[in-house]
Amino acid sequence: MRIVIAPDSFKESLTALEVAEAIKIGFQKILPDAEYVLVPMADGGEGTVQSLVDATQGELIYTDVIAPLGNQTQAFFGLSGDKRTAIIEMASASGLHLVPLAQRNPLKTTSFGTGQLIKAALELGVKKIILGIGGSATNDGGVGMLQALGARFLNQDNQQIGYGGEQLQDIIRIDLSQLDPRLSSVEVEVACDVNNPLCGPRGAAAIFGPQKGATTEMVTQLDHALLHFSHIVEQQYQRNIRDHAGAGAAGGMGGGLLLLPHVSLSAGVDIVINAVKLDQMIENADLVITGEGRMDSQTAQGKTPSGVAKVAKQFQKPVIAIVGSLREDYEVVYPVGIDAVFPIIRQVNSLEATLACGRENLISAAQNIARLYLIAKHIPS
């Protein structure tokens, strides 16, 4: 019997690998002779680097970068086991968690540090970069990131503009002639799970600006600045980044990335599925187990469990989801290929205590699910 265990992380409790290992322990108590294939998963957001590093036997690389407010911070990215692929989370260098609540102001914050992570990856000679762009503190259209990679955004005095979303309105000319030449031979695959355009009522500023500290007045200013930026891009490079699906992701980072040579915006879970070759692992499986910290209606909109289930159903494999908790709208996951869902919480407790005993709860739930699986398969224990 071959069992593939492909969960996401349980945020603030366990990494995806730790979740998979706990499920394996529980199942082994009942099915000790089964073959277990552990595939740590993610959907492009927080935890993607760790999941792909674990899945490819890679390593974490740490480096100092410019944080959103212009101060120094230490960030990290992943390097795959074959040294050919870098996995980067924008949040590591340009994340909202790096900006104190009282200082959150997307007029001022920069994505420069994310560009420095990309540059550090290029120094290692990678041929592909997987970039997750969730959790950002910025609304600068990715201009800071491009500046770190050698692009110049010039104002009326022919000087490079400064940091922050408000600076985009001063751009008169864009100069990409000094963009890092190594980018021409590197594929950049962007994990982008929203399809918002760059500007307008569904754009970066209107939808995501307030959670980064933008007031109503700031949202208007930022939207105008992004629109101006898009006009300059269209005038100089004949590229419509304004209306491109996903351009509004991460404060317009999706749009700015379209100025790089070989970039594609894709659903995060699909990128991870392809990177770990999940289809090859599931093809000969008897059972597929996935999971996440909390399952709700959003799970069916491209989160890890639905992505895993989609692959499994290509081969008509049964799928069980083991999750930390459920919201009342979770049942929409059944039509997307998940056959059964089991929450792991055994007793009512504080959130802190519940998170702390996540591993023990997972093992217990997995053991009971394995017993149920034996009954369903009519195999004597």
From TrEMBL:
It holds the Pfam family Gly_kinase. Keywords: Kinase, Transferase. Signal peptide: none annotated. One of its GO terms (molecular function) is kinase activity. Belongs to the glycerate kinase type-1 family. PANTHER family: GLYCERATE KINASE (PTHR21599). This is Glycerate kinase.
